[in-house]
């Protein structure tokens, strides 16, 4: 994100886009929910059992936000599943995982 | 993040790495602070003026967390600046910006 020289407008637009993505994926549960659903469609109760510590209110709110952003959907049997559109997240997930993994190694080496 | 077939352990490790990155960059201010510093080194007061709405306590906490994660540092004049290591964020920032921008177009087209 080298902003010098770029018009400030472009920088603000880029920051907004970054913040959008972080807000959509951020928080304690969304990535873990996507991780669970990447393993196959699941009912609400299945998710609640697998996500130790999440309450029903929080789970329904997180599922609703993921649904509103077209990343998951509910099928006719009432099971949650990833949407086709969620495949667009693949490069995001991969780069977040890669950076997080190398950062953990760096932080451990500093201790 | 296709987990089926991968050992559950690898999936959990991948989710942890993703969550690490989201936690380090997440929240309302960190990306904007990095965006400001990408334009050049700045004093605390400069940052506080540029980041409309951030209080001194929040700014110092966010700066501390970015410093602890080696993404920014303070130089001898007491100015904050990006570290060499922060360049490792470039692919992350680019993919977050790209996904966020295309997602905004998709969401607008659904309205």
UniProtKB/TrEMBL annotation, chains A, B:
InterPro entries assigned to the protein according to its UniProt record, in alphabetical order: HTH_HxlR, WH-like_DNA-bd_sf, WH_DNA-bd_sf
Domain HTH hxlR-type: 3-108
Molecular functions per Gene Ontology: DNA binding
Keywords from the UniProt entry: DNA-binding, Transcription, Transcription regulation
Protein name: Transcriptional regulator
KW Calcium (keyword) present: no
